[in-house]
């Protein structure tokens, strides 16, 4: 039997995983994903965390299942091989080169950008290997205002984008995000968007919550309004349950839908 969903892409924090829940990833969701993996489906965790951060999150959550792919910092791809996650060489190299070139263009403007933020907000700003500008705002209102300023700046620099997640933001290349990384995984596996499901809760998930990358879209109840609106606009599934519980309901919804259509039945439920 052909599986309706062959590739699952889940955000980590607030979507798959809730820190304050026990267990942080619901057992029924782990069973659902595990069953699909045993039938040949592939699962990617698609996150803004870096590799160390997501590996730590997986270990702490004591997951019974392992993702086949990781997308980290919303851009780099790692593939599960044996006990390791190995970088997807060509994609990661091209991604690093594109960012290096882009950030060389941005670097001279950094003092001016940092000054603008510091004069108006008590925010934490730093540079890391992934972006010359990383922001931790004090609250979402401050982050909204800073994001608007950064987006205006981005209009002056070809290919520059702001990636925002809650009170965090960084710069990135427009060609590399959760959506394009998901498309690359689908390309490597030979799985089309018709058989792909994406689930996310925050602004950095918007690029993958798009029918151009995944026909099946899921937002848990805790998703921010913009995410719910985008998923709803594309006839995706919005759960009344939060975090991983919502993702489990979304998976069940699409699996039932797929089974109904493959059996040629229709019903009104
Ligand atoms: Mg999230």
Question: Which CATH architecture of the largest domain is right?
Answer: 3-Layer(aba) Sandwich
Low-confidence stretches: 262-269
Spatial shape? globular
Number of helices: 8
Bound molecules: magnesium ion
CATH superfamily name of the largest domain? HAD superfamily/HAD-like
Element pattern in H and E: EHEHEEEHHEEHEEHEEHEH
- Share of helix, binned: 25-40%
Number of domains: 2
Quick structural gist:
By secondary structure, the protein is an alpha/beta fold. It has helices spanning 27-38, 51-60, 89-106, 110-120, 140-154, 178-189, 225-233, 243-262; strands spanning 7-10, 42-46, 69-72, 76-81, 84-87, 124-128, 131-136, 160-165, 168-173, 196-199, 216-219, 237-238.
Highlighted features:
269 residues; alpha/beta; Rossmann fold; eight-stranded mixed beta sheet; four-stranded antiparallel beta sheet; 8 helices; disordered C terminus; binds magnesium ion
Q: Overview of this structure, please?
A:
The chain is an alpha/beta fold and 269 residues long. It has two domains: 7-74 and 177-262, Rossmann fold, CATH 3.40.50.1000; 96-173. The protein contains eight helices and twelve strands. The chain has helices at 27-38, 51-60, 89-106, 110-120, 140-154, 178-189, 225-233, 243-262; strands at 7-10, 42-46, 69-72, 76-81, 84-87, 124-128, 131-136, 160-165, 168-173, 196-199, 216-219, 237-238. The strands form two sheets. The chain has an eight-stranded mixed β-sheet, sandwiched between helices. The protein is globular and about 55 Å long. Mean pLDDT is 95; it is low at 262-269.
